Batch of 3 targets.
Target 1
Amino acid sequence: MTPFMLAYAPSDESSGQESTYAAKIDSLLSLMTIEEKLGQLNLPAAGDITTGQASNSNFAEKIRNGEVGGLFNIKTAAKIREVQRIAVEESRLKIPLIFGMDVIHGYQTVFPIPLALSCSWDMELIERTARIAAIEASADGICWTFSPMVDIARDPRWGRIAEGAGEDPYLGSQIAKAMVKGYQGDDLTQNNTVMSCVKHLALYGAAEAGRDYNTTDMSRIRMFNEYMPPYKAAIDAGAGSVMTSFNEIDGIPASANKWLMTDVLRQQWGFDGFVVTDYTAINEMIDHGLGDLQQVSALALKAGVDMDMVGEGFLTTLKKSLEKGIISESDIDKACGRILEAKYQLGLFDDPYRYCDLQRAETEIFTQEHRNEAREIAAETFVLLKNENNLLPLEKKGTIALIGPLANNKVNMPGTWSVAARFDEAISLMDGMESVVGDQAEILYAKGSNVYQDSLLEARAAAFGKSTGRDPRPEAEIIAEAVEVAKKADVVVAVIGEASEMSGESSSRSDISIPETQRNLLKALLETGKPVVMVLFTGRPLAMTWEHENVPAILNVWFAGSEAGYAIADALFGEVNPSGKLTTTFPQNVGQVPIYYSHKNTGRPLPEGVEYQKFTTNYLDVTNEPLYPFGYGLSYTNFEYSDLNLSTTSINKNQKLTVSVQLSNTGKYDGAEVVQLYMRDLVASVTRPVKELIGFQKVELQAGESKTVSFTVSEEDLRFYNYDIEYVSEPGEFEIFVGGNSRDVLTGKFSLVE
């Protein structure tokens, strides 16, 4: 049998999938040279390969020589087909390539940033965004996405907080599972699915000082209780691949950490997919101080890393390490076998062009159906932070002043990590408001301010060509123009906050307040005496105490994707009633950071209801309370909680407890409320958080309607990792909390007995 026939041998339907793959992989490995095996471990970035020039690209010769296992940052079915052809027709063993991309919150149809999606608390909705992203990306030749990012993040200075699900491990775990299922579906060989890549293992979201790529150091008990659950949930959901993090764990960078990549990931969690590094992570271990490129590459392979993204340390040094006996051929075979297995799972050996159907690319990407869904989904992620005197929703009448640096800016609507977006077709807020109000109201526009007064800072906020449309005029002149527009209006919509690239990778901020020039604009608008609605664009929690105290209505819209303008207008004018709830705590000021709801108590807690008391844990200059707590979010209607009931006061390990509460919509609008269930383990062998989320339900109620909402609590919900990193529950007393956020709750108690 020739190598070509071996590579494309049809699967044996009568035997198990795993054994079929194992036999094929072993046969193929026996034919491969060391150089070809190392080639499978090499993942370069494609760069700018144009259609019709793939054969002459920088990678063509390496592909022909079997020195490339996959490519990323290349898109369109036509380009990928050209490159794949070189691999399966011009290389010796005809092994297909795997094609990856950062499909983070949609492909060309862009959904809200992941942090925003988490605020929907709607797992079906989140899964649907991943499903549509997989349909579109796979129609454009891509079969592997570097998503979901499941890093727990509790420091809003860290820019990549925008890319995850917030601060809570339970909610993060549910979202991780939904994303993996959405991407991978039930059968990876279907050409409208993509393999997911869970990132970044591990602890990347806990970077010291919120500075990207920085050191992380924490105890293992905290690691397993607070940061590891979403990674494990994604693995349990069947994620096909895992990406290493840039940071160190216990003094060893993740990409060389055998305890993390082998002992925990493979042996404890049973992961059988492949591990890829983040961009040049192996090379960066040189700066960490672990040795030269040959040394760190060998460390990474021995630790359990299978694929080297961009750095080419595996490709260029592992043969030398093999000859010196530092690594074994078995180490290389394990890694190579895992890459080959992923390609079998994706069906690439059966049909290397299964993702290169040009017809699909024309009919399944950026469709009107997908855009309609993006509009509806975006509106479910908005969080109403304040609504004094029911200023919102606005009426479609009179004159409305639309003012702010992002009020009429298409390219900033999709948000960070929207690499395939059609920016010129994104919907600005100006577009959306004009469409929704039609001829029922007049909309006047003024820019009002730049994002930053400092041009250098604003240039950093305009990365990747996402222009902020900087106005060169003096600040006073720009604001004065906006004030004149505001004076002509009945109400002012002030579009304030961050540009899209002020959050995301390498976008850490030490000052997380609204930029001064935008606050100056707000002050001037408020001084007109006109009612002001603040539409907040942000990729992170911001310290905005002044805004909360002075602006009557605040709607946080994050970055809402391709259809942002339509969705925001729908919410502003009451076509949609906001139901989003925060998944990250908003601090009063940056000095409170990190701040999160599930903190531990100290031995000197501040008494409840007391703002300051000497010799207790507090600040001199600010209370311990956040500006907005985890789980917080208002509605245009009012929800009331009453009649908390626990079905029993004690359970054993084989029994369940029913927690029920009466939820009533006492306002004038139909709406949805996220009912949240928390618990506290009052006495345990190790200190436990003051509250932990263990359940939630999104409940829709018509105006005037009431409903009993019930949760089931079992012994499994009470488990945690103890001092010996054993996953246990312990008999004792527990407190239950139910409410619309982590602060405002009804409480009850029960016991777990032997």
Target 2
Amino acid sequence: MVPLRCKAALFQRSLDFNASHMAEDQNHWLRNVASHVGMQLDVPRHPDISAIRAAWPEVVKACNIDDDRFLQKVAGHFRIGVADVNAYDPQSVKLIPESVARRYGILALSATATSVVIATSDPTNRSAHKEIVSHASRQPVFMMVSPTALAEAVERAYAPARAPRNALQTLVARVAQSDLQVVTSQGEGLLTSLEFEDPAVIKLADLILLQAIRYRATEIHIEPGPTQGRVRYRVDGVLQHVVDLPASAHARLVARLRHLAFGQPGFDPDDGFPVNVGADQEHRGHLLTNPTPDGELVWIRLVDPDYIPSIENLNFGLMEADKIESVLNKDDGVVLVTGPARSGTSSFIYAAMGALTHKSVLSLEGRPETIVPGVTQVKFDPLTGRSFAETLQGLLDQNPDVIHAGEIRDLPTARIALRTAITGRKVLATVHTSDAVSGIRRLIDMGLAAGRLGESLHAVISLRLVRSLCSSCARPFDKERDEKSREAKLASVLGVRPMKRAVGCTTCAGTGYLNQIPLPEVLVITPEMRAVLGKSPNDAQLLRAAQADGMRTFAEVALDRVARGHTTVEEIERVLGIVPTRNETPEEVGPVLVADDEPQDRLTVTTLLEEMGFEVIEAPDGHTAQKMIEAGDENFSLVIMDLLMPNMDGYELLRSVRQSLSTQSLPVIVLTGSANPRDELEVLEAGADDFLLKPLLADRLEARVRAVLRRAGVQIGSPGV
């Protein structure tokens, strides 16, 4: 048996992996071990886990000892223990994201308030140490394990988080491969109850619904395609890809969902169909369908009937919350709530009505989604022959203290709302506009006089929703470490100092965000604002007057949220479209990744980009490109990828880029030699920023590169300028 002896300086005490106490060495410790037994091992000074995994058995064999004995000797030299990877705490595993665990070959076994026990095959990896501290907010205590045993343990430990998706993929394949075909008197292949009551179809539909609720989704999108569709969830306002759906499985799934929504006796489709989560918990699903050339597009809105929003749990900022409370406490006047779809206007209206239940509150709605105790909610029925305005006028005979007039879509409804407010009652109403000032403009455009509007309008509250940082994984913003990130560049231009950065963990499904918080613009109609309205101002004059009167704009509220560590600049840029343009040279903006399996095409693109002044990094296929992007060693400014590549094609690579938190906003241009017009539509829908046909023209490629980067907020100047 050959003893394991290495330089003493290399094997300093490394229990807490304090880099200042670790002796420097020109070679990696595994290479030194191999050299001592006469083996030349080609391992870099800072190898990744794949290199460790490949070299480990060779060194063990050269040492002429078994793997367990080798492991004990290495652990002894590092003065750390040998890990039992079969005894891990599932809650501790969640401290480290799966992508980080796989990248560095680590597994969290247990944790205290200040430390976390980490199984590793390379305790000298300083990058791993930094990532552990960043994600777990604890100091690591390393224990040794062989890379093979570690890889198997990582797979077992993180498998439960992937189980729902794996189950979905299995069920989708089973449904798609079913050879069940029904011949009826009306023709072959028509769907009958035998198909949508097939056990595999039932399980698939149930799992899609239950998993959506588990992931806190508010919407399910089941989208058809010419050969393959997809299922997506809207989680915290953002659509997330769940599973691909072959055309045959899509048709059967849609049939099952339609049966659940419309085929159950005694169910009112407007009330939605039940989705049972547990013995004492039930959601409601509201299903809409639209025909397309490729099949039916299905949209399901999921509602928890037991959830009643309140002003407190909507989590407004302190300044705006005080203004909103003051607005709601006033006995009369119109409170106009504005915002686009999915901006939180409905939740706010329900919360406002709930805060006023000490009064008589009456609400006229198209379809009540939330039943608020203490509020009389009336469903508008157009089959009565009366318009919305006429129905609203009839309800006023009940003399409520507060009335929710629904969405103001026409002049008659607007006039009723204003007349009601003048009589000393409070009116809540909505319009779909982009901001508070536009809400006033919409009413004026309907035909209301600006001066008269000022007499009845009390406030305009405009809303947007942004995702809030996940408290389980968000890490402090590090100026040096994050210097080249998009977050840092945006923050620098906007003049805000970020407090935290999004990371991603199992709690937030890898997004880095959990739940949403509102960004409100609260425009209170003070005597000063009434005087301005009396002069029939334009929008710019209204905005200046509102700001002078104390209204904070969306941007101001959003940047305050960033400074308080509630969200990120990248998130507010996604929602508000704040893309400050910064002038950078191609040398400053970061390298461009070119992924193409054709060497001549790579050379052409690389040459053109280098002539523009960019640094270019090449990848011969999609899989290599994915590894480069995921490694995070380069802060790529742009990816130019071919659509058809071996190992991993452009579609799969594009999905990988868009599904990762760190690369969601990375600009992508797709190249292809295909003349099929559907390719362009599909890659743009999949998330590409632009699309170019081969053979490439130099001026066209340059123009597209500049345009894509400009949309990302970067104005490219000449090299060296």
Target 3
Amino acid sequence: MASLIDTINNPQDLKKLRPDQLPALCDEIRTYITACCSRNPGHLGASLGTVELTVALHYVYDAPHDKIIWDVGHQAYTHKILTGRRQAFLKNRCYKGLSGFPRMDESPYDAFGTGHSSTSISAALGYATAAALRGSSEKAVAVIGDGSMTAGLAYEGLNNAGASDTDLLIVLNDNKMAIDPSVGGLHNSLLKLTTSSRYNRLKLKTWKALGTSSIRDGIQRLVKAGKRLFVKNSTLFQPLGIRYFGPVDGHDVIHLVNTFKRIRNLKGPRLLHVHTIKGKGFFPAENDQATWHAPGLFDVETGNRVSECTPDSGKKIKFQEVFGHTLLELARSNPDIVGITPAMPSGCSLNIMMKEMPERCFDVGIAEQHAVTFSAGLAASGLLPYCNIYSTFMQRAYDSVIHDVAIQGLKVVFCLDRGGLVGEDGATHQGAFDLAYFNCIPDMYVAAPMDEVELRNMMYSAQDKRYKTTSIRYPRGTGAGMKDWRQPFRYIEPGKARLLNEGTHIALLSLGSAGIMGAEAVAKVVEKGISVQHYDMRFLKPADEEVLDYVSRNFAKVVTLEDGCLIGGLHSTVSAYMAGRSHAISKVTGLGIPDRFIRHGSLQQLYKECGYDVQSIAQALEDLVR
């Protein structure tokens, strides 16, 4: 018997199936996603949890005419498979293959590009409003997870939607099973009643007949009170003007189809609350949801992750782990230190300190702006916050850094994880801009360690009163591979570079972990007789003007190297310095992220594309000298 999944090339093919065939299709999709992700890593758990929900949405709604907008995009793998990308999904997140997230330029079914959380409601409201203005029949659906509902943008969208009569459906994908009571027969009966077309026609006729009478108002208050008695979550959405339905079982695809059919033609903003299980159908992913959010390579049969199958006692330590262990060390000796993260305690390794000092660590949920202003309040009270936010997510809190921290002269140590290119997550997650966007803020230090020891020492030094508000940025993953990284702390003077290699032909000024590749390239060209003076600048701001002055007087050719955008970063800083010095003899060549958004691929592929992998750096040095 042919597989059902092989017959589905678009949502129109899906609609040809009988409802009783949908559970079998869901099983096939779940197996396919698991098999693909085992060989080609991706965000597994969230997408396993939304198989039935996605099938039901596409079975009832008419995409791409109707707009289905996925929040973040971790949960959209089934969506990609059903919309003509089943074969291409084998290369999901691969270089020049499918993006791991919805992209408008990838498919007409991707109504809105997503990567950061909590944007779906606002975007869907925009679509719904435009449809109303044009008199179009298209529907707009936002699918948002319970985690994404912690961000302020989601509530801004809800507030705006509730103040209108816009035809908008919000699907709240809730995969935390303990939040609400289990779905029961009584609740399902209430759901069928409130979504029934006959019920809603009768309600509308009755409301029109009653007009604005006190009887109507009394009945409405009684109905709302009755719903609150059974559905406590309605008290969150009803006051905003959004009709609440649910919760429903997100893994009963036939029931979901019937529910969407009932709710599709209702008017005004409404929310359907759906319970799902993250990792559904694959026991390891259900049993350890945090690890299996993005597990890497794994064996489908055994459930063993490849990293667990081949332990290596000599493996390189990650910058994230160095941060976590170092912060705990510092906190043991400095009672003023506190740690803050927006929903990334394990990703950034703040969980290391959390285990020993939970009262001094704060996971504020997906709320970067709040994390920054909360840190500002802690700093104003005399504490020393180490606020860890991924570089790309810090963009969302930029106003708070300026307005609430920098202008007020409050000392917060921002530890920016995932600085620079991050690989397969693509353009929405590349940490390309933090060096540039912090460089222009007055009274702020911008630092980037080249290796593990430098990260430790920068975190240690940032406590000192000579440091102002400081950003310490470092990349995802491993560094130089130092086994002896737990060295005694050493103070680093703000704005002080270090000389890595002496030379006479050309100067290389590197910033951050890109200097590791720079050092390898220098070693290559030295073997060919090219003499390179290599500095690890350490700080973008304040820059080491003593080094810049020396270089400007003694080197006609200078190369800057950074894992960040060239505009506004080290290249811009060094070029501006040289241009302002009449004695400068230097011509400055910049290696870093060019002025475009960098898509997904392995780090080595992306470094090469951007022209600053080891070979490209070495070639640039050779070309300039010869």
